[in-house]
Every structure is written in C-alpha cells, then in structure tokens.
C-alpha cells in the first residue's frame, strides 16, 4: 500500500452512468489490485479496481451510485487527488495456459487489466462479459479495446442470458477461471465450476485491513476483502443466501 497524490488526466462519461478516469503518478499495480480515492467532503475513501495501466497512468471505470461517485464526475483534468494505491492481493496467473475470464457488469474493469496481462505474455484468454442490456455495453466496449463474447440478460446483444449461463451451455475448456461481478454471479460460477479465482466487493471502511468492516466468511474463517482479498479462490468463499 502506498499513499500517493495522483493527477487526473482524463475523466469522461462513456455510458449513461459509467465514467472512465485516468490518473497519473501511481506505481505499477498488479491485476486484481485496487486503489482508494479520497474524495473531498467524503469521510471514507472510495475503492475502485484497476482496469489498466500504461506509461504511469492508472485507468479506472466507475458507476455513479452515490455521493462520492457523483462528486467524482465533477473532477477536472489536471486536478490532483489523494489515493491509497496497490491495495489488496492480485490474481494468480502462474502456469495458466488456458484462462477463462468471466465478468458481470462493471466486473469487466479489473478483468480487462488481467486480460491485458495475459495478452502481454502471448496468451489469449477466453473472455465472456455479461451485461444487463445492449445499452450498457456499446460505448463501454469501444473504449476498452477488447472484443469479448457478449451476453445480455435481455437478449438485446450477443448470447441471451448471463455469462454463467453461457459457460454452462458451451462448457469451454480452461485450466483456471477468473470472475468478477455481482455476488449471485460469483456464487453461480463457484457452484458450477471448481478452480476459479473470484474478485469480490464489499462495503469498506478503512480499506487497508484495520477495521474488519469488509470481512467475509471463508472455509478458513473470516477474511478481509481489502487485505486478504479482493481475490479469493472459488473453493474458499462461503456465500450467503
Ligand atoms: C475492491 C473493490 C473494487 C471496486 N471496484 C469498483 C470499480 O471498478 N468500479 C465501480 O464503479 N465501483 C467499484 N467498487 C464499488 C465502489 O467502491 C462503490 O460503488 C463506491 O465506493 C460508491 O461510492 P459512493 O459515495 O458513490 O456511494 P455511497 O453513497 O457510499 O453508496 C451508494 C450506494 O452504493 C452502495 N455501495 C457503496 N459501496 C459499495 C460496495 N463496495 N459494494 C456494493 N455496494 C456499494 C451503497 O450500499 C449504496 O446503496 C469497488 C468496491 C470494492 C470494495
Ligand atoms: S475496510 Fe477496513 S479492514 Fe477492510
């Protein structure tokens, strides 16, 4: 973890409620890491998964859901923001030759960074990205530079159904899968397939392991999403109802 002051180089709306922000000055993160931005006027930092990194610039995508993210939409290019960077653990990619990457909604963001790291190693992952509807995806994917297999809940683009439905139907070959998205989706993947790495979200307090506010239950007891996670093995997470 590092405390850094980052300069906003881009902050742009790309769909009705999703924005892309680029921040200059952080050390190179690992795929799976997240950062916490200090938003003026907000007591707690706001965590975001790293979606990309190049030339000292960290890329995040954020959905406007409340006070902090609404304030972020008004931040301007050139403005500086305090951040805790290099938070959390990272995806384990050692020895993986046939990765399957599965996202739901904005879970796409941290997995994009992971997919890029595989491509850098000469490995093309199978990337299945699930969205609610076509309107969610068109601009977002244009921005991302990736062309994953698309699924939509309402059938307006790609496969009609969830990303998990697609994988259950097509049963692609993989030696490890990586998933990020809403809890029901992660639960569905973990129930259907072993050998996965799941990137979880939780309401956070401190963001660096001090308050226990982000704990989840695992087969080895309570673990903190911000410290032992956000990446957990699909076998260790105990999902609620
Ligand atoms: C490790 C991690 C990575 C994340 N990565 C991203 C990302 O890449 N892009 C992105 O848009 N968001 C991401 N989030 C969620 C993001 O942190 C929250 O949406 C944000 O903090 C909300 O701030 P706010 O002040 O706008 O909303 P608030 O006013 O704090 O809350 C508004 C609403 O959002 C809900 N909410 C807030 N935080 C969370 C959360 N952590 N999980 C579930 N619901 C929440 C609240 O319950 C409330 O209903 C991530 C969260 C974690 C823990
Ligand atoms: S948010 Fe404080 S321990 Fe995780």
Quick synopsis:
Helix content is 20%, strand content 34%. The protein has helices spanning 67-73, 108-120, 134-144, 163-170, 183-192; strands at residues 2-13, 18-24, 34-37, 46-49, 52-54, 57-63, 80-87, 99-104, 126-131, 149-152, 159-160, 176-180, 196-199, 215-218, 221-224, 231-233.
Q: Total domains, how many? A: 3
CATH overall fold name of the largest domain: Rossmann fold
Alpha-beta content class: alpha/beta
What is the rounded distance between the termini? 33 Å
Percentage of helical residues? 10-25%
Strand order of the largest sheet: 4-3-7-1-2-6-5
Please tell me how large the radius of gyration is: 17 Å
Q: Can you write the helix and strand succession as a string?
A: EEEEEEHEEHEHEEHEHEEEE
Number of helices: 5
Mean pLDDT: 94
Name every ligand kind in the structure. Answer: flavin-adenine dinucleotide, FE2/S2 (inorganic) cluster
Note the beta-strand portion: 25-35%
CATH superfamily of the largest domain: Nucleotide-binding domain of ferredoxin-NADP reductase (FNR) module
Identify the CATH class of the largest domain. Answer: Alpha Beta
Low-confidence stretches are: none
Please give the number of β-strands: 16
- Major sheet summary line: 7 strands, antiparallel
The CATH architecture of the largest domain is: 3-Layer(aba) Sandwich
Describe the global form: globular
Descriptive notes:
With 241 residues, the chain is an alpha/beta fold. The protein folds into three domains: 2-87, Beta Barrel (Elongation Factor Tu (Ef-tu), domain 3); 99-196, Rossmann fold; 200-241, Ribbon (Dihydroorotate dehydrogenase B (pyrk subunit), domain 3), CATH 2.10.240. It contains five helices and 16 strands. The chain has helices at 67-73, 108-120, 134-144, 163-170, 183-192; strands spanning 2-13, 18-24, 34-37, 46-49, 52-54, 57-63, 80-87, 99-104, 126-131, 149-152, 159-160, 176-180, 196-199, 215-218, 221-224, 231-233. A seven-stranded antiparallel sheet has the order 4-3-7-1-2-6-5. It has a seven-stranded mixed sheet with strand order 11-10-9-8-12-13-16, with helices on both faces. Strands 14-15 form a two-stranded antiparallel sheet. The longest helix has 13 residues, at 108-120. It is globular. 43% of the residues are buried. The mean pLDDT is 94. It binds flavin-adenine dinucleotide and FE2/S2 (inorganic) cluster. The site of FE2/S2 (inorganic) cluster has 12 residues, from loops.
């Amino acid at each position: 973890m590092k405390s850094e002051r980052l300069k906003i180089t881009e902050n742009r709306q790309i769909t009705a409620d999703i924005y892309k922000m680029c921040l200059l000055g952080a050390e190179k993160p690992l795929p799976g890491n997240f950062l916490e931005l200090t938003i003026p006027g907000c007591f707690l930092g706001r965590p975001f998964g790293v979606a990309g990194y190049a030339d000292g610039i960290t890329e995040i995508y954020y959905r406007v859901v409340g006070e902090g993210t609404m304030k972020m939409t008004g931040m301007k290019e050139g403005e500086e923001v305090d951040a805790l960077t290099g938070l959390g653990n990272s995806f384990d990619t050692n020895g993986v030759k046939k990765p399957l990457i599965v996202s739901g909604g904005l879970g796409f963001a941290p997995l994009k960074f992971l997919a890029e790291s595989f491509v850098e190693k000469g490995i093309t992952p199978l990337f299945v990205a699930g969205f609610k509807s076509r309107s969610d995806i068109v601009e977002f994917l244009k921005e991302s530079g990736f062309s994953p297999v698309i699924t939509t809940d309402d059938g307006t683009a790609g496969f009609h159904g969830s990303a998990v439905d697609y994988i259950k139907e097509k049963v692609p070959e993989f030696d490890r899968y990586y998933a990020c998205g809403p809890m029901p989706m992660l639960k569905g993947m973990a129930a259907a397939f072993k050998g996965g790495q799941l990137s979880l979200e939780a309401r956070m307090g401190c963001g660096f392991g001090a308050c226990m506010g982000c704990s989840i239950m695992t087969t080895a007891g309570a673990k903190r999403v911000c410290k032992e996670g956000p990446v957990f093995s699909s076998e260790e997470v105990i999902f609620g109802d």
